[in-house]
Design brief:
- It comes from Graphocephala atropunctata.
- It is a single chain.
- The protein has 322 residues and is mainly β.
- It is built from four helices and 17 strands.
- The chain has a domain at 193-311: Beta Barrel (Thrombin, subunit H), CATH 2.40.10.
- 10% of the residues lie in helices and 30% in strands.
- The strands form three sheets. Strands 3, 5, 6, 7, 8, 9, 10 and 11 form an eight-stranded mixed beta sheet that branches. It has a six-stranded antiparallel barrel with strand order 12-13-14-17-16-15. The chain has a two-stranded antiparallel ribbon with strand order 1-2.
- A hairpin with a 5-residue loop joins strand 15 (276-280) and strand 16.
Length: 322
Amino acid sequence: YKTSTGILQLSKTLTFKSPTMFLHLVTVCCFGLISTQAGRIDFPQDINLTNATPRDIYLKGHGLDFKQPEDALHRRLGMLNIVNGQFASRGQFCYQAYLQMSDGLNYWSCGGSLVSPTTVLTAAHCVQGARSAVVVLGGLDLTQRRETGRVVLSAYGNELKVHENYNANTVYNDIAVIKLPRPVTLNQYVCTVKVPGCTSSTGSANSQGSFTVSGWGKTSDTTTTWKLKYASVAGQSLRECANYYRYNVNYSVIESQMCTSGSGGKSTCNGDSGGPLVQVESTGNTVQRGIVSLGINSCELSAPSVYTDVSYFSSWICSKLQ
């Protein structure tokens, strides 16, 4: 029944014979759903953020041979996260977003970045097939039910916008935005990152320069962390990266993508596709250069990681900020 405040309350205790099938539903129920406006539901801050499975992607039609002695055939190209990085401090990556997506039956997680008070930038393969998204901003340790500065919002249906030319087979045009139901308040915990050619005057990145990538998830082939991490990574020329992927996995890296080298054992790994690759300008501004897209699914090969080139899609991104 509904109270005078409009909050739904259960009149009796419900018992599920197979509670694991309703894990997310029960978790949300037990902390209460709060209606913020007609036809909308916002999620409370203290929902369980670690019960979603990271979404992996597979490139179809390729014989994947990594020229490695162990498990050489049919390795997958997968979702990425930080290997050999450092733990972030609160507010250090205030533009970082954590996304929990759902198609109504399944739940998966990705990363993203806040590029305007109403817009989160992420990868298309994260959003494809989703009917809803829980967007967490200002988060650091996802095992904590509450954190200072954390904001949790929900988005639905046509608020999830995948690039019109996204190709799930090649993972080209791997970019999407999520429009938030209301502008978020910017502060020391939640901020926006600049987009080249849109919210920043700077154009293309120095491909041989230094970048920073941040996210949650696996830190090695076997270890997962739910605390935000980051690493400094070196850029790699598109030609070198394309040669590596063509020879090792028969995959064509194209001009709308960019790469980091994985040198020094620092790279991305399974768990947080859609997250930001950033570079600090000489002016001190932090500009997003890439969106974590794909890579070789062994966290410890020090292989190049592939990103969607944000500069290439600046016009598309700008059009979504309106």
